[in-house]
Amino acid sequence: MERENRIIIHIDMDAFFASVEQAENSGLKGKPIAISGNVESRSVVSAASYEARRYGVHSAMPLKMAKKLCPNLILIQGDMAKYARISKELVSLYYDFCPAIEYYSIDEVFMDFSYTVKDFDEAEKVGNKIRKEVKDRFHITCTVGVSYNKLLAKLASKLAKPDGLMVIRREEAGKILDSLPVGRITGIGKKTENALLNSFSVKTVGELKEIPIKALTRVFHSYGKFLYNAARGIDDSPVITPMEEEEAKSIEHSITFPLDTDKTDYIKSVLELLSEKVGSRIREHHFFSTVITLTVRYADFTTKTHRKTIVETNSDKKIYETAVLLFDELYIKGRKVRLLGISASGFSKDNSSLLFKDKEEEKDQKIEETMDSIRKRFGFYSVNRGRVIKKP
């Protein structure tokens, strides 16, 4: 459930790489420039100044095409070390205003002001102070979005670009959202935009809001829930600080058996329990894992690990299936096991590659969400899937 009193700020630098180059070289100010990793080869545009964008130049465009669109385009060899250094200096500045910061990308951050300011009016004042400090100290500009969740704070900064500030309050969200093209919502790309148009003749967020969740999940499976919520401005994802992200780099659970065992049915029933524990914590962080590692310690304390890279998931079932596969590959038949451990790592914060799930996966997801809700209230062992832990 989304918290009622959240105040989230999203800061997005304006044409960051290009702006840094223009700030350092006054001769580039007001001119169309493009940054590339290698201006001498068949490379692509990494970033473009707003002057270049007016000609249609954009990131990921081949340099040859960019030069054709803008014959007077100035190409600059990118310096990622410099941009990373300035990004860190900017974040250091943001810490003067709020300690709860999530590094979203090299030129974007989310900040949770829920316990730092008293209301949106004060947050707006702080946002303008940040903009002024950035301009005064770095001679570049940023845009600030303020709202009650991350989805809408990011939307606000999109709508306010460049060098602006926008606040979206709860009572304003519906009116602002309804008239927007669906592609303005972060997380809705061109592929999804086309699918919405082809399946439902949907072009605007207001039109998307009219589509029942059952119809959306029928076409988009679990991603339909995101579309349904996004159309209503619903987003309960937290601002994840570096400390929290560090803690979540690897999520692991292990069990030492009371008696060493070689009973594979028992071992696999324990693997299922561990998979549920790991999956529950991954979902709590709103993450998706791409690496599952199994640890097996034998009775003589010999310890073996085996890992597998998988398609990003937060599904208990997928974690368990991977763990069983790893165990079958790793286990030496007849040897007694003392300890089992499952670790998930390689986290991402979105599930863009999980747009389409089959009905069985969708059912599993609903079960997991229900179990997570019950466990959050009554404890992990308050509910399970009817699993029977077999005796060793």
Q: Can you walk me through this structure?
A:
The protein has 392 residues and is an alpha+beta fold. Among the domains are: 16-81, 3-Layer(aba) Sandwich (MutS, DNA mismatch repair protein, domain I); 176-231, Orthogonal Bundle (DNA polymerase, domain 1); 248-382, 2-Layer Sandwich (Dna Ligase, domain 1). It is 43% helix and 21% strand. A five-stranded mixed β-sheet has the order 5-6-1-7-8. A four-stranded antiparallel β-sheet has the order 9-12-10-11, with helices on one face. Strands 3-2-4 form a three-stranded mixed β-sheet. The longest helix is centred in the C-terminal third of the chain and has 21 residues, at 264-284.
Averaging pLDDT over every residue, what do you get? 87
Oligomer classification: single chain
Strand content: 15-25%
CATH topology of the domain at 248-382: Dna Ligase, domain 1
Radius of gyration: 25 Å
Q: Main beta sheet, described?
A: 5 strands, mixed
Instruction: Give the termini separation.
Output: 41 Å
Major β-sheet strand ordering: 5-6-1-7-8
Q: Write out the CATH superfamily name of the domain at 248-382.
A: DNA polymerase, Y-family, little finger domain
